[in-house]
Amino acid sequence: TPRVFSGIQPSGGLTLGNYLGAMKRFVTMQDEGKFETIYCMVDLHAITVWQDPAVLRDNTRELCAFFIAAGIDPEKSILFNQSQVPEHTQLAWIFNCVARMGWMKRMTQWKDKAGKNAENASLGLFGYPALMAADILVYHATHVPVGDDQKQHLELTRDIAMKFNHDFGVEFFPVTEPVIEGPATRVMSLRDGSRKMSKSDPSDMSRINMSDDADAIAQKFRKARTDPEPLPFEMEGLTDRPEARNLVDLYAALSGRTLPEVMAEVGGKPFSEFKPMLADLAVEVISPISSEMRRLAKDTAEIDRVLAKGAERARAVAAPVVKRTYEIVGMVG
Ligand code: AQP
To answer: Best mutation site among 18, 50, 136, 180 for ligand 1, i.e. most ligand atoms within 8 A of its Cβ?
Structure first.
């Protein structure tokens, strides 16, 4: 069976963008039953920027509770935390030696996150995509569901797999397919239609957090930036109106309907009418997940048991791949 791998950073909270662009699609792929599904909290990625240790531990457990509350079944999928499976970093070192500096320097996430202060960014942040390639390829994953922002990193993963295979004259690592589809592969900030919604945006008003209550959600949509025109009647009328487009996309993704279906319902409405509809729908989707998350997160012993079991299952798949890789590279052992 084809194998799916994807991960989310426990870098604090979870946005509606992470949920619609990633988590919700992880659940669909698990439930379709066409794939073996492997999902990961990538704590080693999170520490490429500073994380308070106690907060990181809490965030990792909370993210695990989110996965389960959103519908990931730790029996059906392998659900685990990255640092509990050392094979990821073992393979990442090999990939550090395969990937080229020039490839890494071209990554837009590196440029965005390191910004003008690249001299002071961590080496880990620069090497992030090599660890990500290892996360995926240590399972020989064939399909990776992600948001649109990760497209470039997945291309790099393919480049690393191909260069490794070519350098060592083997057909060992698969060339992975990104799975970037659906109506919410790039959810935009509520304050700026040209930036993606992100956990690390300094403005909390720019995002819907999966832990926001109904009042906060209603307020954030009410204050979301828009132009003054009412919604158009046709999809074409959303071109060059990024904020309007984003809200309509969100409505479609949250209601599980297509854009044309949604336009037939809300076309022509002023934002004063549409925004409360969107807020109600978001609350309907988010609140059962967040209340279940809070319930599950209370039992940290149970979360830790799930993570330990997930790590054991993950290692059973990853260890033989690392062993074979080290043989191919020429390590004695
Ligand atoms: N705005 C988004 N729309 C759709 N998908 C998104 N993803 C992130 N933002 C959006 C997808 O969520 C998955 C997990 O992302 P991550 O936790 O690894 O970190 P990220 O991509 O860097 O997301 P954030 O929220 O912007 O976190 P920070 O601010 O810490 O960097 C990925 O599949 C991603 O595509």
So the answer is: 18
